[in-house]
Amino acid sequence: MGRPVSERFQRWLPWVFAGVMALTRWPGLMPPNFSGVYAFVFCAGALLGGRRAWALPLGMMLATDLVLNAYYQFGRGWDVFTLTGLALLLANYAGYAVLFGLGRLFNPRTRLLNLITGGILGAVLFYIVTNTAAWLFNPFHNPEYTRNFAGWLIALTKGTGGYPQTWEFFRNTLLSGGLFTALFSSAWHLTAAESPADKGEAVEPEPEEQPVEAEGS
C-alpha cells in the first residue's frame, strides 16, 4: 500500500515552511523584524531529522541572504559588502545557530504549547545576540551605543535617534516567532501519521489462522 496522504503531504511541509520564510524576508512585505525565519530555524531543529534538519534552513538562509544583499547593494545603493557588514551577517548566523540548538532540545512529539514557548524563547535569544552584535560593531557610529552597560541597554530597548525604537522590533520579533511557530508546528502535528505503536497504544496481535481439518472419508 502507498503512504497515507497526510504522511506524503508532511514530506513537503518543510519546503512550504522554507517558502513562507523566504517570502516574509522580502523588504517591505512585513513590518520590520516580523519574519518567519525565527520559527523556521527553530522548527527545523525540533521537527526535522537527519541532514535535512540543518541543510534546508542553512541553504535557504544563504540563498535569501545573497538575494537580499544584492538587492540592497544594487537596488538601494547601500554598501553591504564590507567587513562590518560581514561581521553582522555572521552574528545573525550565530543567532540562527542558537535557535537551531534550542530546537534540538525538543522533538516532533513535544506538545504544541511547549513548541510555541520554545519558539518565542528562541526569538528572544536571537534578538539579544544580534542586537548585542549591532551594539559591539556599531556600523553606523551611533553615539548612543557607548561601550558600557548603559549603551548596551539602549541598543536593546531604545536604539538610535531618528529611527523606530528597538523595543518595537523586539515586539515584532516576539509576535512573529510565536505566530509562525504555532503555524508550522500545528501543520506538522495535523499531518503526522502516527501508528498505534508510536502513540503508545497496545497493538493486539492478529489471531492466527487455524488449520482446517479434512472431514473423514
Question: How would you describe what is shown here?
Answer:
It is globular and about 55 Å long. It has a domain at 5-127 and 167-190. It has helices spanning 5-24, 37-47, 52-75, 83-103, 112-137, 149-157, 166-190. With 217 residues, it is mainly alpha-helical. The two termini are 43 Å apart. The longest helix has 26 residues, at 112-137. Helix content is 63%, strand content 0%.
Ordered list of secondary-structure elements with their pairings:
Blueprint: H1 5-24, H2 37-47, H3 52-75, H4 83-103, H5 112-137, H6 149-157, H7 166-190
Helix pairs in contact: 1-3, 1-7, 2-3, 2-4, 2-5, 2-7, 4-5, 5-6, 5-7, 6-7
Give the low-confidence spans: 194-204
Strand content: under 5%
Tell me the helix content.
55-70%
Strand-and-helix sequence, N→C? HHHHHHH
Number of strand segments: 0
Rg estimate, integer Å: 24 Å
Q: Round the mean pLDDT to the nearest integer and report it.
A: 85
Determine the number of helices (DSSP H or I, runs of at least 4 residues): 7
Overall geometry comes to globular
In whole angstroms, the N-to-C terminal distance is: 43 Å
> Structural class of the secondary elements?
mainly alpha
Largest sheet, in brief, is:
none
Structure characteristics:
single chain; 217 residues; mainly alpha; globular
Summarize the structure.
With 217 residues, the chain is mostly helical.
